[in-house]
């Protein structure tokens, strides 16, 4: 779960860096990214990753596409310092910039992508318009995001699902990191409304029966509840979770969406 969305302050910077690194190492996230890359259908040229976080995807793109010049942009100077600190010599440029006001001329890029960013934004349509603006005619925009309303749990005891949903709804309301929980399933609509053509979309449902494998995407742990003063409220549910893990019945699913369109 995106328990934190932004780099600000030393502790939070380290937490987000570690969370994003763990997610990048998750085979589930790699499957989502591979789906995105296929749908994006770019072969090289000038590529932009908006809200790049640690810059992992930008570096992967550079390694995969030798003809690409990749720019990784994030509105947080801390994020860009972190990403630049992880630089591996690939053809990636790291820059500070806000999706609402990207510091590039119209039509500058052959491809633009953005992953797990729109869910955190108050005005996702303005962000999509900003990304479309810097794309050349014929270039492709690829968006990836989570639909948090697709989160489903199962396991013994059966109350694990309902109890978990109630707690997550309350936690999200308090944490205020995810402004738009259904974001993933809205991506296609936003691309269509922004005037992109040849719009394609695909859900990628993540299924975990191993809590340790789920954690990089959804870190169900006491710390997420502690951070918003919900530790006592969550204790019973966390005990249920431990039981489901111990007896092997734990299951969680979450759908992420990939969508791409042509300017
Ligand atoms: C959950 S992280 C995702 C990072 C990366 N895309 C990934 O998938 O690993 C969200 C990122 O969006 C960035 N971000 C949030 N609002 C932004 C904005 N208005 N403009 C640019 N980046 C933004 C945050 O700083 C953070 O790095």
Automatic annotation (TrEMBL):
Keyword tRNA processing: no
Methyltransferase type domain segment(s): 48-142
Keywords (A to Z) from UniProt: Ubiquinone
Any one GO MF annotation of this record: S-adenosylmethionine-dependent methyltransferase activity
Protein name in the entry: Ubiquinone/menaquinone biosynthesis C-methylase UbiE
């Amino acid at each position: 779960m995106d328990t934190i969305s932004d780099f600000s302050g030393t502790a939070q910077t380290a937490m987000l860096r570690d969370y994003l690194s763990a997610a990048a190492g998750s085979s589930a996230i790699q499957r989502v990214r591979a789906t995105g890359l296929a749908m994006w259908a770019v072969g090289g040229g000038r590529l932009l990753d908006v809200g790049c976080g640690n810059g992992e995807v930008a570096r992967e793109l550079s390694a995969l596409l030798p003809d690409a010049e990749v720019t990784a942009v994030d509105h947080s100077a801390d994020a860009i310092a972190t990403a630049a600190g992880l630089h591996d010599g690939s053809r990636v440029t790291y820059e500070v910039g806000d999706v609402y006001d990207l510091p590039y001329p119209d039509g500058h890029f052959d491809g633009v992508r953005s992953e797990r960013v729109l869910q955190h934004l108050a005005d996702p349509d303005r962000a999509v318009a900003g990304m479309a603006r810097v794309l050349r005619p014929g270039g492709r925009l690829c968006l990836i995001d989570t639909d948090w309303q697709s989160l489903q749990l199962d396991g013994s005891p059966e109350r694990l699902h309902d109890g978990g949903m109630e707690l997550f709804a309350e936690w999200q309301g308090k944490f205020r990191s995810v402004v738009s929980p259904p974001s993933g399933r809205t991506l296609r609509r936003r691309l269509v409304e922004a005037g992109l053509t040849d719009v394609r979309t695909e859900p990628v449902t993540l299924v975990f029966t191993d809590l340790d494998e789920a954690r990089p995407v959804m870190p169900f742990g006491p710390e997420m509840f502690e951070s918003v003063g919900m530790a006592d409220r969550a204790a019973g549910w966390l005990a249920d979770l431990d039981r489901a893990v111990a007896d092997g019945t734990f299951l969680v699913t979450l759908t992420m969406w990939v969508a791409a369109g042509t300017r």
